[in-house]
C-alpha cells in the first residue's frame, strides 16, 4: 500500500501529483481517484479540485510530465550518439524502450485515454520535442542515403510503432527468453530492424 505523507504546507499541486504517481506505480492507472489522492495527501476531498478539474485533468498533467521526462532522455541519446545518423536514430529509439522498461508507470500515463481527449490540446504544456526529434533523425538518415526517400513523417510513425511495440513486448515477457539485459537486447534489435524497416522494397515484377 502506498505510504501516506500528509500535506502540511508548500506546493499542494505537486504533492497531489506525487501521490497520484505513487498510486499508479503501486496499483495501476485504473485505481487512481482524486478522493484517494486527497486522502493520501491528508487534505479534504474537495482540495484537489482547486488544481484539477477532474481525474482526467490530473492524468493529463502526469502524462505531459512523463512526456517531458521521455524527451529529456531522447535528447541525451541524440546528443550522445556517434555521428552516424542510423546510430543516432537507434539511440533515440533505444532511449524510448529503456524509459518504458524502467518507468512503466510513466509509460502508462503517456498512453492513457485521457491524453487523446480534446481537452488535452488545451491542457498541454511545453514538454519537449520528442516527435520532432524523431522526425529530424529520420530526415538525417534520408539525407545520408541510409533510409529510403519519402515522407519522413510516415517513416517516423513506423519507427515510433516499432519501439513502442518492442517496449510493450519486452515489458510483458520480462526477461523470459531474452538474452542478457532487455535494454541492450532492444538496442541490438533496433540496430538490425531500423535499416530494413525503412528501406523501400523492390518493385514487384510485372507478369
Describe it for me?
With 207 residues, the chain is mainly α. The chain folds into 2 domains: 7-52, Arc Repressor Mutant, subunit A (Orthogonal Bundle); 62-197, Tetracycline Repressor, domain 2 (Orthogonal Bundle), CATH 1.10.357. It is 64% helix and 0% strand. The chain is elongated, with a radius of gyration of 20 Å. The chain starts with 11 loop residues before the first helix and ends in a 10-residue tail after the last helix.
What is the fold's blueprint, element by element?
Elements: H1 12-27, H2 34-41, H3 55-80, H4 85-102, H5 104-110, H6 119-123, H7 130-143, H8 152-173, H9 182-197
Helix pairs in contact: 1-2, 3-4, 3-5, 4-5, 4-7, 4-8, 4-9, 7-8, 8-9
- Tell me the series of helices and strands, N- to C-terminal: HHHHHHHHH
Main sheet properties: none
Tell me the CATH superfamily of the largest domain. Tetracycline Repressor, domain 2
Annotation, overall tally of beta strands: 0
What's the total helix number?
Answer: 9
The level 1 CATH classification of the largest domain is Mainly Alpha
Distance between the termini: 66 Å
Search tags:
9 helices; Arc Repressor Mutant, subunit A; elongated; 0% strand; mainly alpha; Tetracycline Repressor, domain 2; 2 domains; 207 residues
Briefly say what this structure is:
The protein is mainly alpha-helical and 207 residues long. The chain is built from nine helices and no strands.
Amino acid at each position: 500500500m502506498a505510504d501516506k505523507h500528509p500535506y502540511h504546507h508548500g506546493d499542494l499541486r505537486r504533492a497531489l501529483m506525487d501521490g497520484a504517481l505513487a498510486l499508479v506505480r503501486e496499483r495501476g492507472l485504473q485505481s487512481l481517484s482524486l478522493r484517494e489522492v486527497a486522502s493520501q495527501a491528508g487534505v479534504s476531498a474537495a482540495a484537489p479540485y482547486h488544481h484539477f478539474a477532474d481525474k482526467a485533468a490530473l492524468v493529463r498533467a502526469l502524462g505531459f510530465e512523463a512526456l517531458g521526462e521521455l524527451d529529456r532522455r531522447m535528447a541525451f541519446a541524440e546528443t550522445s550518439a556517434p555521428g552516424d545518423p542510423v546510430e543516432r536514430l537507434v539511440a533515440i529509439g533505444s532511449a524510448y524502450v529503456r524509459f518504458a522498461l524502467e518507468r512503466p508507470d510513466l509509460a502508462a500515463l503517456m498512453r492513457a485515454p485521457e491524453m487523446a481527449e480534446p481537452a488535452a490540446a488545451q491542457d498541454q504544456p511545453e514538454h519537449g520535442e520528442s516527435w520532432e526529434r524523431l522526425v529530424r533523425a529520420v530526415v538525417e538518415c534520408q539525407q545520408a542515403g541510409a533510409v529510403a526517400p519519402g515522407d519522413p513523417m510516415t517513416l517516423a510513425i513506423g519507427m515510433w510503432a516499432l519501439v513502442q511495440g518492442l517496449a510493450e513486448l519486452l515489458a510483458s515477457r520480462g526477461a523470459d527468453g531474452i538474452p542478457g539485459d532487455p535494454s541492450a537486447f532492444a538496442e541490438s534489435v533496433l540496430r538490425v530492424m531500423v535499416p530494413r524497416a525503412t528501406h523501400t522494397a523492390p518493385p514487384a515484377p510485372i507478369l
